Amino acid sequence: MAHILQSRKIPSFLASNAVALGAGSLYMYSLYAPQLIEKCHIPSSEASNLAFYLSFGSSLLGCVAGQIVDRSPNLSCLIGAICIGSAYYILQVIYYKEKASSSLIAFALSLLGYGAVSGYYAALKCCNVNFANNRGTAVAFPVSMYALSGMLFAAICTTFFKDDLKIMFRFMGIICPFLLILGFLFMKLEPVPFDVRPTISPIRTSNAAQNSHLRASSASTLGVSSNNYEDINSATLLRGSKKNEEDGNENAVEQTIDGNFGLNFEDQNSKSILEGLKSYEFIGFFIVLNILQGMGQMYIYSVGTITQTQFAVLEESDVILISDKIKHVQSVQVSMISLLSFFGRLTAGPLSDIFVKLFNSQRMWNVVISCIIMFVACLKLIYEDPKQLQAASHDMNSFIHLLSFHLSFTSSLFGYAFGMMFGTFPVIIADSFGTKNYSMFWALITMGGLLTVRLYTSMLSKNISSNTLLNDTVCKKGELCYDSTFWYMSISALIAGVVSILLIIKKYVDSKRTSNKYGYISNS
């Protein structure tokens, strides 16, 4: 039966990855935005705010998507396909007819953002429910596809369509909805059915060690890690076991296990929205995730500006001479961030499973590692002086290569940490709150990222403006153009790391308290 169940999950897993790939196309905005804005004659004062509507659709409207996903992931994929297809059609018409309507573009971007998270959240829920015993590894794939999508579609579009946005919008408006339709057709939730139960010989539970061993094997049979056994009503199970042991009932464990696992054992033990909002985990996760999300997205959005300020230490005539090479370095940063974010997301799941299964530890250690990497990346930018790199270079070409190498290394750190964080948190949310209201919790926790991105971006803008001379269009003071912003960000990374460690300690203490109360040793 377990083998049949696993084979039925494979089409759902493949469909989840296809959905995530189609949903991640929203990150292509930076590719077509300049040409679209120019063709439609959008004023610069309005153009700078258009990207907000993409975040509005994917963050603030994510709560709506979360509610639909928790009721029907397939319906959410269908809605996402319609929204994404409509968004690209509207953009195609606007571009072709050169309509100077920023409100219409904003509406299309909001639709695109909402459609993306409708599919993405459905893909995450499917993998979390269907592969409860290997959540980290299973979720890593759609999360990675979501990150890789922008770079993959950008490469396809620039290769085959060049600057023809009309054809590009038509292509994206067909292929992305098609990928989400695959989710609507083939993505199914396959929870552990009632007839898949552990086969246990009648034994007398004489000591805590036997109980612990039996619990671990039972949980493993049902597709749940023994380290997260409290997620499936361990307290009830233990009370029943200890009571029956005192009565001398040799069939105690078999009866208790048989009576506590049904069709949707995780749904039975999932937290309600109100219960979750009051928990310390929700508050802690909200703080940590949104600090790191804001830091990562701010760097992603601003790396082009940072590259420009580093090269601005050269003479203005030299900057004009190597302008094409500067653009190349900027594009390299975007590629490095995308690629390392992909690897970060891909490795985060297996690494978190290793923490849980081999070291009997917690997935939150992945997040602590992300905090450390982002902290190091911030310090690297603060102490890396472009003028010193210029002095150490023999000629212009060596300076370009040296600066590109150091900046690419920093971009790799930010990209990997950002990817690892986003590759780990979906599983942590499922482990902590269950899968019944999973998508709603994920939407609520990630919603604050919109505020932190704005905060760090505005800090950088003020930092650069205060160091730019009156008649200059670019800040020419090197690392002084952004050092105070990254000082605050490095402190934020430390705060996120401290909160993460406190969450780890709190969970460990709670687990030990439960262990002492019910007489078993927990592996938290």
TrEMBL record:
Transmembrane spans: 12-30, 50-69, 76-96, 102-124, 136-161, 167-187, 364-383, 403-428, 440-457, 486-505
Source organism, top-level taxon: Eukaryota
Name used for this protein in its record: Uncharacterized protein
Example of a GO MF term: transmembrane transporter activity
Origin species: Henningerozyma blattae (strain ATCC 34711 / CBS 6284 / DSM 70876 / NBRC 10599 / NRRL Y-10934 / UCD 77-7) (Yeast)
Gene Ontology CC entries for this record: fungal-type vacuole membrane
Subcellular location: Membrane
InterPro entries linked: MFS, MFS_trans_sf
PANTHER family, per the entry: ADR278WP, UNCHARACTERIZED NODULIN-LIKE PROTEIN
Keywords from the UniProt entry: Membrane, Transmembrane, Transmembrane helix
Membrane topology note: Multi-pass membrane protein
Main localization category: membrane
Signal listed as a keyword: no
Keyword Transmembrane helix: yes
